[in-house]
Amino acid sequence: MSETVTETPTSASGQGVDPGEPPAPATDAGDRQLGPQGEKALEEWKRRAKDAEKEAKAHAARLKEFEDRDKSDLEKATERASAAEQRMSELRDRAVRAEVKALASAQFADPSDASAFLDLSAYVTDDGDIDSTAIERDLADLLKTKPHLAKAAPPPSFDAGPRTTASTGTDMNALIRQAATGR
Hints:
single chain; 5 helices
């Protein structure tokens, strides 16, 4: 009869490792640096990625040019107008968010939290202006319903108030003079 011996795999520390257990991830101490050839290869890949990105932008511009060639002036103008309208909408949302953050900075612990709880589109008037009074009103209502968003009250002062300077003690000569004059 032949004998078979099974050995338990061991780790670098000499302890047994369970074969069903996945290997431990490599630690930073065990990782090696790239070395000069690796650095050179990394720089080459970065350069290639930048070149590919530039080429992709050029191809996208060329495709846009071909698409625009077949469009009428009205279609081109309509497309530009819709792109401008979309950009204006994004800028208006950004302005409303900034206004909410500015008004909330006085009362909220994190002013950016206020914009997360409010419907920002409700604060733009029909003429495109931002309604600051409505924002202030809604911020006050938000603090009533969610007081944990408010700034923490400053800690109480344990100062006993204004201090008076200690009176200078009277010396013995002053007491004798005072007794001698009879006051």
